[in-house]
């Protein structure tokens, strides 16, 4: 058990602003890799509750035509920055791909700010509920400082200057912007179907229910989804918490999973033979 918490002690000894990249790499790549992956999936899902975001995504046709590729591109590009550092050659190349993709469209700075905020706070909220150990305050702050630097390199303006201020911005933006629209529902359906497609056909109806069971009330309203039956929500929550308890007794992970995608569906064998510039959606035809 003492070995299981060695990295938490290491995190406690680091400075969350100066050492934010190292802390984030430990937390996301070694301590909570599965949880970070799931939480970031739902963080992106959450952004589709903003009508201006879902409207743009519906207009591009990417979710209709290439949902798996769009998911893989986003996940791999963000992982490149985290695994190698946003100022490394591969991290800079990944940032160029992200910035080029965003530069094709008229995206408001507030929408970009909101998406950035979900990458910080949704994993924190997930881990507060389902993590195998409590997050150290340094992990919370390091996530903020890490994404603040990524956001600056993406040209996002007016990033709040403190952890609490950015969380307040996120809450206020959701209160103001979350509301049902047909494009929310369209992108929401595409996303639920994408998640379900990762399972064998006979399990897909259960997977769709499982996804809905993990959405909070504001998300359900904004997508126009019916809530999952209470017993499904209870089963999902119990299962995730039981998993967290079991993980406490496992030995610590030896190798980081950041930048490694063993089950990638769009780019088999990634990262072998691939560069960040190989990723990303093609330019729109019109």
User: What is the H/E order?
Assistant: HHHHHHHHHHHHHH
Low-confidence stretches: none
Shape: globular
Q: In which range does the helix fraction lie?
A: 55-70%
What is the overall number of helices?
Answer: 14
Q: Rounded to an integer, what's the Rg over CA atoms?
A: 18 Å
The end-to-end distance, rounded to whole angstroms, is: 58 Å
**What kind of oligomer do you see?**
single chain
Class of secondary structure makeup: mainly alpha
Mean pLDDT: 92
Largest sheet: none
Q: Bin the strand percentage.
A: under 5%
Domains, number: 1
Protein name: ER-bound oxygenase mpaB/mpaB'/Rubber oxygenase catalytic domain-containing protein
Region (Disordered): 262-286
Pfam families: MPAB_Lcp_cat
Domain ER-bound oxygenase mpaB/mpaB'/Rubber oxygenase catalytic: 58-234
Summarize the structure.
Residues 58-234 form the ER-bound oxygenase mpaB/mpaB'/Rubber oxygenase catalytic domain. The protein is mainly α and 286 residues long.
Structure description:
This protein is mainly α and 286 residues long. The chain has one domain (3-266). Helix content is 65%, strand content 0%. Helix 6 packs antiparallel against helix 7 (89-102), helix 8 (109-130) packs across helix 10 and helix 12 (204-213) packs across helix 14 (230-247). It is globular and about 50 Å long. GO terms for molecular function: oxidoreductase activity. This is ER-bound oxygenase mpaB/mpaB'/Rubber oxygenase catalytic domain-containing protein. Residues 262-286 are annotated as: Disordered. It comes from Paractinoplanes atraurantiacus. Residues 58-234 form the ER-bound oxygenase mpaB/mpaB'/Rubber oxygenase catalytic domain.
């Amino acid at each position: 058990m003492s070995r299981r918490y060695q990295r938490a002690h290491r995190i406690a000894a680091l400075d969350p602003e100066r050492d934010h990249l190292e802390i984030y790499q430990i937390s996301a790549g070694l301590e909570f890799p599965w949880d970070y992956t799931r939480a970031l999936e739902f963080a992106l899902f959450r952004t589709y509750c903003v009508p201006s975001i879902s409207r743009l995504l519906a207009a591009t046709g990417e979710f209709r035509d290439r949902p798996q590729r769009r998911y893989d591109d986003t996940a791999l590009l963000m992982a490149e920055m985290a695994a190698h550092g946003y100022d490394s050659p591969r991290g800079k190349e990944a940032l160029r791909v992200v910035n080029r993709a965003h530069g094709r469209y008229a995206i408001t700075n507030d929408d970009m700010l909101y998406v950035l905020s979900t990458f910080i706070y949704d994993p924190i909220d997930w881990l507060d509920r389902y993590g195998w150990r409590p997050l150290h305050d340094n992990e919370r702050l390091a996530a903020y400082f890490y994404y603040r630097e990524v956001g600056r390199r993406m040209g996002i303006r007016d990033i709040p200057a403190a952890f609490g201020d950015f969380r307040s911005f996120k809450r206020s933006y959701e209160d103001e912007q979350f509301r049902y629209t047909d494009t929310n529902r369209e992108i929401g359906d595409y996303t639920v179907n994408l998640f379900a497609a990762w399972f064998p056909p006979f399990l897909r109806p259960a997977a769709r229910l499982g996804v809905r069971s993990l959405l909070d009330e504001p998300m359900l309203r904004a997508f126009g989804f019916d809530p999952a039956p209470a017993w499904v929500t209870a089963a999902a929550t119990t299962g995730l918490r039981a998993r967290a308890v079991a993980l406490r007794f496992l030995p610590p992970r030896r190798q980081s999973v950041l930048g490694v995608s063993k089950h990638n569906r769009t780019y088999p064998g990634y990262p072998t033979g691939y560069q960040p510039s190989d990723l990303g959606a093609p330019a729109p035809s019109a």
